[in-house]
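Predict fold of holo-[acyl-carrier-protein] synthase; 279 aa.
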Amino acid sequence: MRIRVMSQLQRSLSIELPSLVPLQLPSRMETHLWFIRPDEVKSTSLLKHYSQLLSPTEKEKVLQMRGDELKKNALLARTLVRTTIARYQTNNEVDPKALMFKKNMYGKPEVDWQNYTNCNNPPLHFNISHTDSLIACGVTVHVPVGIDVEDKERKIKHDILAFAERFYSADEVKFLSTLPDPEVQRKEFIKLWTLKEAYVKALGKGFSAAPFNTFTIQSKVGTKGEYNLCKMTEMTASSLEETNKCDGEWKFSLLELDDSHYAAICIEDDEASGGAIFS
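Predicted 3D structure, encoded as tokens:
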């Protein structure tokens, strides 16, 4: 599995829209992951320019945020989505400000491609996630994508195992209980949470459609940062049988961004054979 991450710094999220460098579309079963650190964007004039890219509804939502930092992060999140998608559409003269969005019946945001009759590219799928210190956007073609980012140093206020028993599957709780080091246990808890969030977001049906305790995320043997999805109805007493019955229709990858965050990516595998490539 190849992983290549694109960081949209202040110099690439530039004021002049023509400076957006056109990019080749992701190939089938490939994900492009973009991220930005809000603390790297310090120019007030740049932020004012970004606000001009947003729709009236988006601007209103940004202004409703409490506190300057929340407003700034919300603005950058919408800007990241718009400028990222526009990079793949510049040959069709779709600029960030012109992009229109809709939500599916479960509330997952999508680009409303019906408004672009001159766009011959296959429709892009995207998903966004953010913390106070990092914003990320995943982009795919043909297949849904879900991403989640979490701060590696995030503190868990509750007892980790007790918290896991409320939200995780029995197998995940058992796995966490075998970790004697509290710090390792905390990190593995966060990794599982990040992967589960990515899967639910890729499904695009809301959390009620896939409660965290109804499926298990397992590390894929012989790989680094790859995972399997196992449905509770498929679990058996044998760990070997569990692995064999894991759902291969979903591909996962877990990576670190800027040595400070975990990022999980989940995409649907519309080709039964072959592994997903994350770029």
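Confidence is low (pLDDT under 50) at residues 9-18, 233-244, 272-277.
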